[in-house]
Amino acid sequence: DASDIEKGTYPHYMLKEIDEQPLVMRKIIQTYQNEQGELTIAPEIINAMNDSDRVYIIAAGTSYHAGLVGKQFIEKIAKIPVEVHVASEFGYNMPLLSDKPLFIFISQSGETADSRAVLVSVKELGHRTLTITNVPGSTLSREADYTLLLHAGPEIAVASTKAYTAQLAVLSILAEVTAKSRNYTLGFDLVHELGIVANAMEVLCDSKELIEHISREFLSVTRNAFFIGRSVDHYVGLEGALKLKEISYIQAEGFAGGELKHGTIALIEEGTPIIALATQESVNLSIRGNVKEVVARGANPCIISMKGLEMDEDSFVIPEVHELLTPLISVIPMQLIAYYAALHRDCDVDKPRNLAKSVTVE
Ligand code: G6P
């Protein structure tokens, strides 16, 4: 549908695609539901999950970051062990594979050559493969045994946004449907929780002014920035750093809170921006301890927390969602912070230098 790829009144595709996330979420919930309102996935895919003793997720860039969160979903909900690998590295040091591996390729475009190279080599070994992609008929979709679609609509901006949250939603559904097929008690209703996520996304998309202000305050004059978090917040921090690097050219890195003291803290100077995520109750106090350590060395902290865990010093509070699903919404302030940082620096938001939307060379 050509109207899908018009910018309309938006100045950039990236902003339009960020704003589409609540809609995409609702579309995914709807598409993956059966007439009884239950989440459903093709039985052959669920059988492949159940037949496997270990899942290997292969991806690049933002899709790799989605894979890190996906591992948590599959391990915690479906209780199948998962390894996540950067596609371009997998070939050099192929891990010792389990007896019955299932390979999941996560790729927005379905065309990434690094991921395809792995697909070709594991197919030669006779292993089963599933592609999670936004593009029906893409190379990775055609060549894998099975496909799950993201239904996110065309993503035009080079920096991936709605595809990431769509990948997380589809991975959570895959984990849930697998768990149900194994008669595991979940203790939550994923359809309901993803609905809460969609509403929370809307609230965040309506908070642009505050995030623009935060971005200006923390990132308008800096060479670098650090993102810290523990547990899944660390993975969202990696994605936040990647977004910022890609479009604003600020040197940004994501670190695990506990790892700071083992090296990175040496980089903290007067005014170094530190973006800290605090969405997990179990690590709330320890990440705040890390913030104190960097503040004591002069850092300029921006704490993004989840409702219920917030403290006075926090810059931004995201609405409460199920603790497993926080990455689906905590990433939105990361996307918007990067967007406004790029705008303030007059960067070409949709077409950053040196990058391509899909990289079809190894
Ligand atoms: C390129 C894009 C990234 C993307 C990565 C993986 O490097 O610039 O935004 O995350 O490829 O793309 P894929 O289509 O496989 O998800």
From TrEMBL:
Positions annotated as active site in the UniProt record: 357
Main location (coarse class): cytoplasm
Keywords: Aminotransferase, Cytoplasm, Glutamine amidotransferase, Repeat, Transferase
A GO term, aspect molecular function: glutamine-fructose-6-phosphate transaminase (isomerizing) activity
Signal sequence, renumbered to the chain: none
Domain SIS: start-end pairs: 41-184, 214-352
Source organism superkingdom: Bacteria
Cellular location(s): Cytoplasm
EC number: 2.6.1.16
Reaction equations catalysed: D-fructose 6-phosphate + L-glutamine = D-glucosamine 6-phosphate + L-glutamate
Subunit structure: Homodimer.
Functional summary from the UniProt entry: Catalyzes the first step in hexosamine metabolism, converting fructose-6P into glucosamine-6P using glutamine as a nitrogen source.
UniProt-recorded name of the protein: Glutamine--fructose-6-phosphate aminotransferase [isomerizing]
UniProt organism field: Neobacillus ginsengisoli
Gene: glmS
Span of the entire protein shown here: 239 to 600 of 600
